[in-house]
Amino acid sequence: MSNPSLLILPGDGIGPEVMAEVRRIIDWFGDKRGLSFDVSEDLVGGAAYDAHGTPLHDDTMAKAQEVDAVLLGAVGGPKYDVLDFSVKPERGLLRLRKEMDLYSNLRPAQCFDALADFSSLKKDVVAGLDIMIVRELTSGVYFGEPRGIFEEGNERVGINTQRYTESEIDRVARSAFELAMRRGKKLCSMEKANVMESGILWREVVTEVAKDYPEVELSHMYADAGAMQLCRWPKQFDVIVTDNLFGDLLSDAAAMLTGSLGMLPSASLGAPMANGRPKALYEPVHGSAPDIAGQGKANPIACVLSFAMALRYSFDQGAEAERLEKAIEAVLASGVRTADLLGEEGVTPVTTSGMGDEILKALDASL
Ligand SMILES: NC(=O)C1=CN([C@@H]2O[C@H](COP(=O)(O)OP(=O)(O)OC[C@H]3O[C@@H](n4cnc5c(N)ncnc54)[C@H](O)[C@@H]3O)[C@@H](O)[C@H]2O)C=CC1
Ligand SMILES: CC(C)CC(=O)C(=O)O
Ligand SMILES: [Mg+2]
């Protein structure tokens, strides 16, 4: 049987830096665990624009549709601010999400014990935190029509449209209920049904889907109150399901519960392919971090943990995913830290590749 295929799209800024560490870890699993992948690499975002004048070449899009999973670093950067909106780096990523129909974006926020002191919140608020935000990823205000900047009278008006169909809400709600069944059987749905019709429909459809999951305790919260509760007492949550925009905001906020945006992975999943695996793209939650790019300061853990999610959700290798997560836990427990996590007494600063070295050593020690 041939190896499973992976398309790697490092992207821009710190994307290639963190992805270089993931490639070493992928090689380790091939050498030491007999878990080999057919890896190909291509361009996305600003890097693709520089080479082809488009943030995602059609050939790259076609490859992404064919492989078993895509791993992406990050896109964007100030160099591309002057570009027309239609060819901005971020459009490349949005096209991948939309055309692969990756409607369910899993963004776990887990606080490693070693980092509980580092969070901007009190230790007892975050210690042991393990929540999962499920963000709808292919619809809502990021994609709704009409959109654009139009002339209206003697001024311009910028328009984006929040739009959700029942089936779009239904499928992401089901994916969240399925996850909740495998976790703590608690699901909180967040919208703004108090001011938005799309929120009213969201709440109705989620409530309807809940009938198929009687074991899951469902609650509803307005997303603004949800943001507040995430900071006040995040451990009240198990799985959260929310729309595209609220999920984008809430997951960045949740990142800080774990200490750094450099710690948060994500999986973007769609419908099963012919081989039974879901369409899938894995990427860190963070962006291209132009402020630290090229300085060896980027934390590669979010991207490495995204590969761990690929092992779990695409390749049915839960035990190997856990091996990788435990290796990262051990490295953090030993006091090794990238620049984003410095500040405590007695920690050992390392560069991006230094963190990769330490994770590889911890993996070796796991054998
Ligand atoms: N999925 C993606 O590719 C995303 C791309 N972006 C793009 O990235 C560019 C920069 O956006 P920002 O708003 O600055 O968000 P960002 O996530 O790139 O950076 C926010 C802050 O977090 C820090 N940070 C992020 N990742 C880190 C890591 N792995 N290690 C250490 N520190 C890290 C950065 O240094 C910065 O101070 C923009 O062009 C934006 O559109 C933003 C978010 C997601
Ligand atoms: C297209 C991305 C830049 C939007 C974003 O911030 C995200 O998906 O996290
Ligand atoms: Mg974001």
Automatic annotation (TrEMBL):
Assembly with partners or alone: Homodimer.
Keywords: Amino-acid biosynthesis, Branched-chain amino acid biosynthesis, Cytoplasm, Leucine biosynthesis, Magnesium, Manganese, Metal-binding, NAD, Oxidoreductase
HAMAP family associated with the record: LeuB_type1 (MF_01033)
UniProt pathway: Amino-acid biosynthesis; L-leucine biosynthesis; L-leucine from 3-methyl-2-oxobutanoate: step 3/4
Enzyme Commission no: 1.1.1.85
Site (Important for catalysis): Y142, K192
4Fe-4S found in the keyword field: no
Biological process annotations from GO: L-leucine biosynthetic process
Chemical reaction(s) catalysed: (2R,3S)-3-isopropylmalate + NAD(+) = 4-methyl-2-oxopentanoate + CO2 + NADH
Lineage: Bacteria, Pseudomonadati, Pseudomonadota, Alphaproteobacteria, Rhodobacterales
Family to which this protein belongs: Belongs to the isocitrate and isopropylmalate dehydrogenases family. LeuB type 1 subfamily.
Protein name: 3-isopropylmalate dehydrogenase
One Gene Ontology term of the molecular function aspect: 3-isopropylmalate dehydrogenase activity
Pfam families tied to this protein: Iso_dh
Cellular component terms per the entry's GO annotation: cytosol
Residues binding substrate, per UniProt: R97, R107, R135, D224
Necessary cofactors: Mn(2+); Mg(2+)
Amino-acid positions noted as binding NAD(+) in the UniProt annotation, renumbered to this chain: 77-90, 287-299
Function: Catalyzes the oxidation of 3-carboxy-2-hydroxy-4-methylpentanoate (3-isopropylmalate) to 3-carboxy-4-methyl-2-oxopentanoate. The product decarboxylates to 4-methyl-2 oxopentanoate.
Listed InterPro entries: IsoCit/isopropylmalate_DH_CS, IsoPropMal-DH-like_dom, Isopropylmalate_DH
PROSITE patterns documented for this protein: IDH_IMDH
Domain called Isopropylmalate dehydrogenase-like: residue spans: 5-359
Binding site for Mg(2+): D224, D248, D252
Co-factor: note: Binds 1 Mg(2+) or Mn(2+) ion per subunit.
Subcellular location: Cytoplasm
